UniProtKB/TrEMBL annotation:
SUPFAM superfamilies: Nudix. This is NUDIX hydrolase. Keywords: Hydrolase. Pfam families: NUDIX (PF00293). PROSITE patterns: NUDIX, NUDIX_BOX. It comes from the Bacteria. Signal peptide: none annotated. InterPro entries: Nudix_hydrolase, NUDIX_hydrolase-like_dom_sf, NUDIX_hydrolase_CS, NUDIX_hydrolase_dom. GO terms for molecular function: pyrophosphatase activity. The keyword Heme does not apply.
Length: 181
């Protein structure tokens, strides 16, 4: 596989923000030619597939400026510096939905956009939800929804659910349901 690697010659920081950093890397390609790579650096994130005792999926509806639209998603958020993913998952679940759970089960980690970003999302499932206290960030506004698997699948079809992490989680839930029957 070494014949596929690119060698970084120089990294130029472009922007350092609250959520992401942007850099441009000058690289030598496997064929010896030079190129540039624009890279978004991200601290990583967690996403949670919360399922109520009644078997409903807890989702959040919120406006996403990058899309200039309101979409429905599973609860998620970025990792704070030095924070363990399972702690972040518990924190984000309660902050965004007002629910908490002792039954947090790690499912998988995946890259969101490996062509230009290093964001890694750690996906968790949780059940036996208990009502806690929601505590949204000052710049966060959202609605909490509880939907059936069928309703979530319809939201994917009509593009109310429009992001990969949520579509992935809904498909996971569907496969889990199929395994029970």
């Amino acid at each position: 596989m070494d014949h596929l690697f690119e060698k970084t010659i120089k990294t130029t920081p472009i922007y350092q923000g609250k959520v992401i950093d942007l850099q441009v890397d000058d690289v030598t390609l496997p064929n010896g030619k030079k190129s540039k790579r624009e890279i978004v650096k991200h601290p990583g994130a967690v996403a949670i597939l919360p399922i109520t005792k009644e078997g409903k999926l807890v989702l959040v509806r919120q406006y996403r400026k990058a899309l200039d639209k309101v979409i429905v998603e599973i609860p998620a958020g970025k990792l704070e510096r030095g924070e363990e993913p399972d702690a972040a998952a518990r924190r984000e679940l309660e902050e965004e939905t007002g629910y908490r759970s002792e039954k947090l089960h790690y499912l998988i980690s995946f890259y969101t956009s490996p062509g230009f970003a290093d964001e890694l999302i750690h996906l968790y499932e949780c059940a036996d939800l208990e009502k806690g206290q929601g505590a949204l960030d000052a710049d966060e506004f959202l609605d909490v929804l509880e939907v059936t698997l069928e309703e979530a699948e319809q939201m994917i079809r009509d593009q109310t659910i429009y992001d990969a992490k949520t579509a992935f989680a809904v498909q996971y839930m569907k496969l889990k349901e199929v395994g029970r029957t």
